[in-house]
Amino acid sequence: MPWNWRIIVVTRLEESLWPRSVTHAMGGIVMMGDSRPPGAATTLTTTSAELSMLLTAVRRGRVLTVTGRFRAPRSLLVRDIARRLSSNFCDGTAVVTVTRDGSPGELVAALGRVPGTPFPPGGTANAASWLAERDMLLVLDDSDRLSPAALSWLRALLTLAPGLRILASGAHPLAVGQGRVHRL
Q1: Which of 9, 36, 41, 38 is nearest to 25 (CA)?
Q2: pLDDT in tens, 55-100
Q3: Which of 2, 6, 128, 165 could form a disulfide with 49 if both were Cys (CB 3.0 to 4.6 A apart)?
Q4: CA-only gyration radius of the chain, Å
């Protein structure tokens, strides 16, 4: 029987506040066994088999979109997957939260602000050529805000960059061609 996990984001970890069912704690995320309490907005129920399937889908595929009605669970899941898979990519992961208009220029600027990513300044053409040489996971949180121009740029980027994988979260699947969809 698969084990169910709950992920609860916490800001301060104190042993006196941990419930008895805490089995593992790391990096500000507490993983707990059993089921989710009704109405808890900051928890996410995922079985270990389901998580294993998602990790494999990201490693083997080019694009995976996690869809669902609420933003918080989608965001928690894609960030957890990115954290777990960071060491599988030579150039690591870049997590970008899409805001405002979601233009290609905004994506490039956001990539330039990702800590630990030596991203060159310049336009989208320079960014595409730089990303073409990378083996990395690009995480797009709240991908519904991407503009049609940004989606077109991502499609072109996928053809130029064989080592690039995209993990997106949104209410709808990422419209960049082939890709898998996981519905929460």
Answers
A1: 9
A2: 999 988 999 999 988 888 899 999 999 999 988 988 888 888 888 7
A3: 2
A4: 17
